[in-house]
Write a structure and sequence with these properties.
With 395 residues, this protein is of the alpha+beta class. It contains twelve helices and 20 strands. The chain folds into two domains: 11-196, 3-Layer(aba) Sandwich (Rossmann fold); 263-364, Double Stranded RNA Binding Domain.
């Protein structure tokens, strides 16, 4: 293997590597891979750095502002590389980000969960820019060529560009265009399977394509919110199970995106007049816990087929909406400063009652963080559990 090194050793990239080590996002044994596989080598000229604090993005073009482009490439932030499944054009952000380069701390955290090593056979799901596949190739195939890395991407254009970037960098994983949800049986069985795309259902095909004792690492969550977490599963005779390791947010696999919800179809004019009304002692401070916190993730595990939408607070009031997926159920909780929250519910389910029951359960269990939860996946489906898989429930 001949890896083409970066032409310029950039101070920003040195600082990024140092920060990843100091924060333990990257373990020291990954430093050779970080040095050899340069994120900038895989990026297109036009990128959109994503500010996770404000959820905003402004385009940066290497052809007009190379300094800003390299600063973004050497930052610890996600970079959007495609909008709207490739139908977007221009420099303004599109509607939905559909391909990206993940923040380096997230990628190297995933590598630590996956624990791949030289000589292993690895499936990388969601090729994207190709950087992750390149890093896995450097780690597993190495100079001896004893391992094998297969990377699969559903978007033909994204896959083609990644292949070109990988070859230019002297990295040669098998680049496949196809549906990552079904895996890639031709190169199975795998020692490791890594997904860099958010999942709502972890495929039974992956469990069938991995060796006994193999590891699957993937961002996973429910339709309840964007509060995902990385799950690390170990395979054993048709079953893969393991704990979640840390909260993350990833763009979702195209076939598993949340269904569109039209508020007016759930809540037509006059719907509040006929809705069931009540109050709740749960406060806004208790319920709206913020990004990357465990509560929305836990509620998603306990309340099936439900989507939550938290509105902005205005004039001391904040509505939180809940929509049933697959039926017409809806609920609204109106939090007001200094007042007990009022609740409206309608439809076949009483969604707030379900959510409040899940919230009380979470409290009774000691407000568990992500790491106490786990997932079991078989060919029949998936179930979640707290602390140990013996007492699980379907998700």
């Amino acid at each position: 293997m001949t890896v083409n090194p970066p032409q310029v050793e950039r101070p920003g990239r040195k600082e990024l590597g140092r920060a990843l080590l100091e924060t333990k996002a990257m373990s020291p044994d990954w430093t050779p891979t970080f040095a050899a596989v340069d994120r900038a080598s895989f990026l297109p000229d036009l990128i959109w750095p994503w500010d996770t604090k404000t959820d905003t993005s402004v385009a940066v073009d290497r052809t007009t502002d190379a300094d800003a482009w390299y600063a973004a490439a050497d930052s610890n932030m996600p970079l959007v590389t495609q909008w709207d499944d490739g139908e977007h054009s221009g420099t303004t952000p599109g509607r939905v980000s559909t391909s990206s380069s993940s923040a380096p701390s997230v990628n190297y955290g995933l590598f630590q969960d996956l624990s791949p090593d030289e000589g292993m056979r690895v499936l990388d799901v969601a090729t994207g820019t190709g950087e992750t596949a390149g890093a896995l190739y450097h780690r597993c195939v190495g100079t001896r060529g004893r391992g094998r890395v297969t990377t699969i991407e559903v978007d033909h254009s994204v896959s083609r560009q990644a292949r070109e970037k990988l070859c230019a960098a002297g990295l040669y994983p098998d680049v496949v265009t196809g549906d990552g949800f079904v895996g890639h049986a031709d190169d199975a069985p795998y020692d490791r399977i890594l997904a860099t795309v958010g999942l709502r259902e972890l495929p039974g095909a992956w469990v069938r394509q991995i060796r006994k004792g193999g590891v699957i690492a993937a961002p996973w969550g429910t339709h309840y919110s964007n509060a995902d977490a990385v799950v690390r599963l170990v395979a054993n005779s048709g079953v893969a199970l393991g704990h979640f390791t840390r909260p993350v947010e990833f763009m979702k696999m195209r076939a598993q995106r949340s269904p569109k919800r039209e508020h007016s179809k759930y809540v037509p004019a006059g719907a509040f007049d006929s809705a069931n009304t009540s109050t709740t002692a749960v406060t806004e401070l208790e319920f709206i816990t913020g990004r990357y916190t465990a509560l929305p993730f836990a509620l998603g595990l306990r309340v099936r087929n439900c989507f939550q939408a938290v509105a902005e607070a205005r004039d001391g009031a904040r509505p939180v909406w809940f929509y049933g997926l697959g039926d017409s159920s809806w609920a609204c909780v109106m939090f007001r400063d200094g007042e007990e929250a009022r609740v409206w519910q309608s439809g076949p389910r009483r969604l707030w009652d379900e959510v409040e029951a899940a919230y009380r359960w979470w409290e009774d269990q000691g407000r568990p963080e992500h790491e106490r939860f786990g997932l079991t996946v078989t060919s029949e489906g998936q179930s979640a559990w707290l602390d140990a898989p013996g007492d699980s429930w379907p998700v």
